[in-house]
Amino acid sequence: MPIMQKDEKSISRIVRLALTIITAIAFGAFYLFGFRQAWDVNPDYNAPRLTSVLIIFQVFMLLLTLAACLWSIVRALSCHAHGDWKQNGVAVMRNALLIIGGCALLLLLTYILAPEEVLTINGQAFSDRPTLRLANMFVSTSGILIIIALLAVSASSIYEKYRR
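Given the sequence above, the corresponding structure tokens read:
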């Protein structure tokens, strides 16, 4: 059966499985092939051979995610262009705006609360404070959102179990 004739849940499952396999292959190759390669400047540090491949993969995934987000936003706005902001009795636009606002607030809070300590990386001090705060903001926000997602999935499965 062609992929366009499947329901949304099947397509989502196929895409998630494909992305998981591709990600596992990329990271597996990174760690298995040349990860312990010594750095030319200082042999005490590693210079993994496939670092550039992993960076290109991550940039590709970021661009793919941004394209999917933009497509989703445009599609949602075009579907609700005539003022019908509810689907099946659920206020979808209000929920979407709450999620966007919550994510923006979380990003702002993790940036403000990020430490400004100098890091020592490969024996050299890294003191670019805005970059350190941005990196900390993205790492902290990602961790918090992963925890929220795990809690939501757990709560949903518990709710479904007791609803039956």
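The two ends are 33 Å apart (CA to CA). Try to locate this feature in the token string yourself.
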